[in-house]
Structure formats: structure tokens, C-alpha cells
Amino acid sequence: MINWLGQAYLWVLAAHIIFVIFWMAGLFIFPRYLVHHQEGLADPAEPPRWEAREALLRRMILTPSLIIVWLLGLALAANMGLFNGQPGLGWLHAKLLLVIILTGYHGWMVSYSRKLKARKPTLNARQLRMVNEVPAVLVTLIVILAVVKPF
Ligand code: HEM
């Protein structure tokens, strides 16, 4: 532990967890929006409503919390000595890999919403619902790694 955060450490950790919750809320609800958006493509009144909801959710919740979680998470990682070769941080490397995949999922959601805006869906309803489960699986593994620190 480098502990460059000093007295601020627990506040940074609390803020990290708070913004993780916001980010997760967005990552769970946004793909539900995509399902409804895709189902509503046949009705001319529906798509503009979903486009507006998706844009608002991205602007107010998803993008800010993604950035803040990453910044605070990297500050905590530096505090633990990740960038100073501290041993025993295998869990953190694994967690970072899963968080990078989760960030990729975030990017995929945004790109799929652009496809729906262009009226060009590439997944069927069943595939879209299955992809919805990805964040739940990743979050489960990430929290186990962060809390249990098994290796
Ligand atoms: C974006 C990149 C992220 C980085 C670099 C990162 C880094 C860290 C670090 C180093 C800690 C340990 C703090 C400590 O014990 O001193 C931590 C704690 C934690 N992180 Fe992250 N994190 C990130 C994203 C996430 C995500 C996406 C989640 C959940 C889905 C998450 C959930 C947690 C939880 C629950 C803790 C508290 C563990 C505990 O104190 O027992 N983190 N994070």
C-alpha cells in the first residue's frame, strides 16, 4: 500500500462505490431501452422517444459515471501500489481486465443505439435480451474480486 491518498482514502473509496452504483444502474437499464426501442421500430411515434431517452441517460448517468469510476478506481489502484510493482495484486489485474470488458460493453450499447437510430438492427429480440445479461455476470465477478481479493 503506497497510501498517497492519506486521509482522503476512505472518501475516495466511498465515492468509487457510489459512482459504480450509478454506472451499473445505467448499464442495466440502457439495454432494456434498446429492447423497447427495437420493438417499437415499426411504430413511427416510438423511435424518437427512445432516442431522446437514450441520449438523456447517456448524458446524465452513463458517461459521467463511467469517467468518474475510472478516475477514482485508478486513484485507488495507485494507492494500492499497482503502478509501483506491489506484489499480491493479482485480483486487481483480473478485475481491471473485466472492467475493460465492461467498458467495451458500454461502447457496444452506445453503438447499437446508433444502429437503431439508423433503423438498422443487427440482433433479433432474443439475442438482444441475452446480451442484456452480460453486465450482471461481469459485475458479480468484479465485486467478488474486489471484496474477496482471492489471489
Ligand atoms: C474502472 C476501473 C476500476 C478500477 C481501476 C478499480 C479499482 C479499485 C481498487 C484499487 C479498489 C480497492 C480499494 C481498496 O481496497 O483500497 C476498488 C474497490 C472496489 N471496487 Fe473498484 N475499480 C474499478 C471499477 C469498479 C467496478 C466497475 C466495480 C463494480 C462493478 C467496482 C467495485 C468495487 C468495490 C465493490 C470495491 C470495494 C472493495 C472493498 O473495499 O472491499 N470497481 N476498486
TrEMBL record:
<dbReference type="GO" id="GO:0070818">
    <property type="term" value="F:protoporphyrinogen oxidase activity"/>
</dbReference>
<keyword id="KW-0560">Oxidoreductase</keyword>
<feature type="binding site" description="axial binding residue">
    <location>
        <position position="95"/>
    </location>
    <ligand>
        <name>heme</name>
    </ligand>
</feature>
<comment type="similarity">
    <text>Belongs to the HemJ family.</text>
</comment>
<protein>
    <recommendedName>
        <fullName>Protoporphyrinogen IX oxidase</fullName>
        <ecNumber>1.3.99.-</ecNumber>
    </recommendedName>
</protein>
<keyword id="KW-0408">Iron</keyword>
<keyword id="KW-0472">Membrane</keyword>
<keyword id="KW-0349">Heme</keyword>
<keyword id="KW-0812">Transmembrane</keyword>
<comment type="function">
    <text>Catalyzes the oxidation of protoporphyrinogen IX to protoporphyrin IX.</text>
</comment>
<keyword id="KW-0479">Metal-binding</keyword>
<comment type="pathway">
    <text>Porphyrin-containing compound metabolism; protoporphyrin-IX biosynthesis; protoporphyrin-IX from protoporphyrinogen-IX: step 1/1.</text>
</comment>
<dbReference type="InterPro" id="IPR005265">
    <property type="entry name" value="HemJ-like"/>
</dbReference>
<keyword id="KW-1003">Cell membrane</keyword>
<keyword id="KW-1133">Transmembrane helix</keyword>
<dbReference type="Pfam" id="PF03653">
    <property type="entry name" value="UPF0093"/>
</dbReference>
<feature type="transmembrane region" description="Helical">
    <location>
        <begin position="130"/>
        <end position="148"/>
    </location>
</feature>
<comment type="subunit">
    <text>Homodimer.</text>
</comment>
<dbReference type="GO" id="GO:0006782">
    <property type="term" value="P:protoporphyrinogen IX biosynthetic process"/>
</dbReference>
<dbReference type="GO" id="GO:0046872">
    <property type="term" value="F:metal ion binding"/>
</dbReference>
<feature type="binding site" description="axial binding residue">
    <location>
        <position position="16"/>
    </location>
    <ligand>
        <name>heme</name>
    </ligand>
</feature>
<feature type="transmembrane region" description="Helical">
    <location>
        <begin position="12"/>
        <end position="35"/>
    </location>
</feature>
<dbReference type="GO" id="GO:0005886">
    <property type="term" value="C:plasma membrane"/>
</dbReference>
<feature type="transmembrane region" description="Helical">
    <location>
        <begin position="56"/>
        <end position="78"/>
    </location>
</feature>
<feature type="transmembrane region" description="Helical">
    <location>
        <begin position="90"/>
        <end position="109"/>
    </location>
</feature>
